[in-house]
Amino acid sequence: MLPLEGVMVLDLTRLLPGPYSSMILADLGARVIKIEPPPPGDYMREFEPKLRKDSAFYYAVNRNKESISLNLKDEKDREILLKLVRNAHVVMEGFRPGVMEKLGVGYNQLKGENPALVYCSITGFGQTGPNKDKPGHDINLIAIGGVLDQIGLKDGPPVIPAIQLADLTSAFWAAIGILAAVIKARNTGEGSFVDVAMMDSVLSWLPTHIVQQSAMGTAPSRGDFFLSGGAPCYRVYETADGRYVVLGALEEKFWSIFCKAVKRDDLLPYQFSEDPKVVEEIEGIFRSKSLAEWVELSNKTKDLLISPVNSVKDVMEDPQVKARNMLWKVTHPEEGELALVAPPLKISGAEFECRKLPPALDEDREKVLKELLEE
Fold first, then answer.
1. Closest residue by Cα to residue 173 from 141, 152, 190, 195
2. Which residues are CB-neighbours of 333 under 8 A, at least 6 positions away?
3. Looking at the annotation, which residues are catalytic?
4. SS3 state at 115
5. CA-angle at 300, arms to 297 and 303, nearest 5°
6. In sequence order, what are the residues at sequence separation of 6 or more whose Cβ sits closer than 8 angstroms to the Cβ of residue 63?
7. Rounded distance, CA 334 to CA 169, Å?
8. Are 290 and 237 in contact (CB under 8 A)?
9. 295, β-bridge pairs
10. Whole-angstrom Cα distance, residue 333 to residue 200?
């Protein structure tokens, strides 16, 4: 049995944060009904890179869901939504504050249909504050939230991460908030409004920086944080064949193991040295071997914390990834074989799997309406 069996989620979100969050719930066993606008539906279907039909982005975050299409500007479709809400435990949406209210299906309206309803809204800046009505993409939110300023090399410009940090982090917080509110609803019969701001989620990445700034009046600048890759013991190094490895020898014992492994005990005093000549010396050591040779040395030397900088292709072939069953291979009738990233947790007694492929737009309409709306 899956942990969330019996929980029904109506997901009106689009793009990445909401659908990723609702997929977490779906993987855990919730019945997630994806409610999409009229064609083309969720805009994510159209994003590049597109496969034969829909976007790789869409397939990545929409498994284990059903899809129906409703036009919330149409009175009949709004009535369908209200009827679905009576049987639901959770509603998720990602519109700007006030949009759902104008459509007549905001939290207060839906709570009237179902007092125990958990209603989660994921927006850029939340329901309050001077920026609440502003739009924003991931790059805007990590910039305003202080994370982008920390990414990059010392004395260099900020570097845009290839991973959508604000989107994905807000998805996690939304799932956590929803689960907490569902437990409350089961215990008390009282629903909740879960207000998730993507900028707040970004800020949650900076707990140590905020504490340091408040206590000392200053926080690390870009490249100065001791985990930013400046110290010789915690750094990216190029190998002889133009690949890269990382060294993560923060503790003295791990630094000692490294120095002994490369037969350079003279480097023991320089674990956190700021002398550029020390870094140059160690860079030369790493350029003396290929990536494969460093991996081999790390594998045969206990607790030598040298790891390869894997490409996506490398990760997909990694023995640890395979042992943890972290990639699900599925066959889509139109797209062929796809690999989906599995939930990154294991729960005893629960077998997670791709129970249903990401749905085509409105493919479950007949089933959903028959099961949930028939009197």
1. 195
2. none
3. 167
4. coil
5. 90
6. 23, 26, 27, 330, 340, 354, 355, 356, 357, 358
7. 31
8. no
9. none
10. 40
Q: Are strands 327-332 and 336-341 parallel, antiparallel or unpaired?
A: antiparallel
In the chain, the domains with their CATH numbers are 8-204+323-373 (3.40.50.10540), 234-238+244-308 (3.30.1540)
Which tokens go with 87?
A: 């049987």
Please say whether the beta carbons of 33 and 10 come within 8 A: yes
Hey, CA dihedral for 353, 355, 356, 357, is it positive or negative?
positive
Token digits for 312? 């996506």
CB 44 within 8 A of CB 59: no
Greatest CA separation for the chain: 80
Of all helices (H) and strands (E), which one includes residue 253?
helix 252-261
User: What value, to the nearest 5°, has the Cα angle with vertex 250 and ends 245 and 255?
Assistant: 80
Angle made by CA atoms 48, 50, 52, in degrees to the nearest 5: 170
372 pLDDT tier (thresholds 50, 70, 90): confident
Give the C-alpha separation, 305 to 295, whole Å.
10
> pLDDT digit string (tens) for 87-104?
999 999 999 999 999 999
pLDDT in tens, 287-336: 999 999 999 999 999 999 999 999 999 999 999 999 999 999 999 999 99
Sheet (strand 234-238) strand order: 234-238, 244-248, 306-308
Q: What is the pLDDT of residues 64-79, one digit of tens each?
A: 999 999 999 999 999 9
